[in-house]
Amino acid sequence: MGQPAVALELASESALLARAAELAKRWCEHGHMPLVIGLTGGLGAGKTSFVRALLRGLGYQDRVPSPTYTLLEQYDLDCLTVIHMDLYRLASAAEFEHLGVRDWLAEPRVWLLVEWPERAPQLLQRADLMIELEIVSENARRLVFSACTERARPLLAAISEPDSNKPS
Q1: Domain boundaries, the chain
Q2: Around 66, how many Cα atoms within 13 Å sit in the side-chain half-sphere?
Q3: 79/58 Cα distance (integer angstroms)
Q4: Is residue 87 a contact partner of residue 68, using CB atoms and an 8 Å limit?
Q5: For 24-68, what is each residue's pLDDT tens digit?
Q6: CATH assignment of 9-134+144-160, given 3.40.1710.10, 1.10.1670.10, 3.40.50.150, 3.40.50.300?
Q7: Is the preceding omega at residue 162 within 30 degrees of 0, hence cis?
Q8: How far is the C-alpha of 46 from the C-alpha of 143, rounded, in Å?
Q9: Reduced to 3 states, what is the DSSP secondary structure of residue 71?
Q10: Can you say whether the dihedral through the CA atoms of 105, 34, 80, 83 is positive or negative?
Q11: How far is the C-alpha of 26 from the C-alpha of 147, rounded, in Å?
Q12: Confidence bin at 166 (pLDDT 50/70/90)
């Protein structure tokens, strides 16, 4: 038997952004931290857009640049610190070590959101939750959330709950 997983089909970018913001609020309210979340999917699948929406859901309103060239962006929020990493251009294991990930993994109130986690196997092994984004059509996306640790199992339950922003 594989890892527990939940799949979502989202018909538009606005649906993706709204769902990600809602999940961020739920996960933070329930105290789900520290967390390592890996985001996989092809170029243009929406990984960075998903992270931006998570940050918006946590109340962050400033610019959220893609860390494609910087490899890492840090966001200090009231409830936690979010580290957004994009390892697509990671050149070596030594470069990964210089990012200070080991220090972040020791922090109790941090989320590491990692695009292309497979580029750093040592971090991939630490992932609590994997989110695979797949392009279904020009605007539609399919997301598969897989719990890799016991800590991530409650996150799947929050994904399955009805969206509290929708009218009953």
Answers
A1: 9-134+144-160
A2: 14
A3: 8
A4: no
A5: 999 988 887 889 999 999 998 999 999 999 999 999 988 888 887
A6: 3.40.50.300
A7: no
A8: 10
A9: coil
A10: positive
A11: 16
A12: very low
Q: Which residues on adjacent β-strands are paired with residue 120?
A: none
Which amino acid is located at 61 in the chain?
Q
The letter for the amino acid at 155 is L
For 15, the token pair is 């649906």
Cα 53 to Cα 24: distance, rounded to the nearest angstrom: 8
Residue 1 pLDDT class (50, 70, 90 cuts): very low
Stretch 101-128: mean pLDDT, rounded? 89
The tokens describing 102, both together, are: 């080991």
**Tokens linked to 108:** 């109790």
- The token duo for 117 is 């986690």
